TrEMBL record:
One of its GO terms (molecular function) is serine-type endopeptidase activity. This is Peptidase S26 domain-containing protein. GO terms for biological process: signal peptide processing. It holds the Pfam family Peptidase_S26. It is found in: Cell membrane. It comes from Bailinhaonella thermotolerans. It comes from the Bacteria. InterPro entries: LexA/Signal_pep-like_sf, Pept_S26A_signal_pept_1, Peptidase_S26. It is a single-pass type II membrane protein. GO terms for cellular component: plasma membrane.
Length: 81
């Protein structure tokens, strides 16, 4: 799991209001992309990210591969209040 900058700024059609997204990395550069993602292989310097809720997730199924520069941090464990 990683935290990444939302590639679609707030106000752009299809964007989320949050500036950050938490997603799973499904494929890295050189690997084949999952069936629901456009393209055949992940380009250099990019990753494919997928959310746990495909029906409502803004992820690589809609955005394509994401530049590594958008990845901010790796998630190590879930935080609770």
């Amino acid at each position: 799991m990683v935290v990444l900058r939302n590639p679609r700024p707030h106000g752009v059609e299809g964007s989320s209001e949050t500036p950050y997204l938490i997603k799973r990395i499904a494929a890295v550069a050189g690997q084949p992309v999952p069936p629901d993602v456009p393209g055949r292989t992940v380009p250099e310097g990019q990753v494919v990210v997928l959310g746990d809720n495909p029906a409502q997730s803004l992820d690589s199924r809609h955005l394509g591969p994401i530049p590594l520069t958008h990845v901010i941090a790796r998630v190590y464990r879930r935080m609770t209040r």
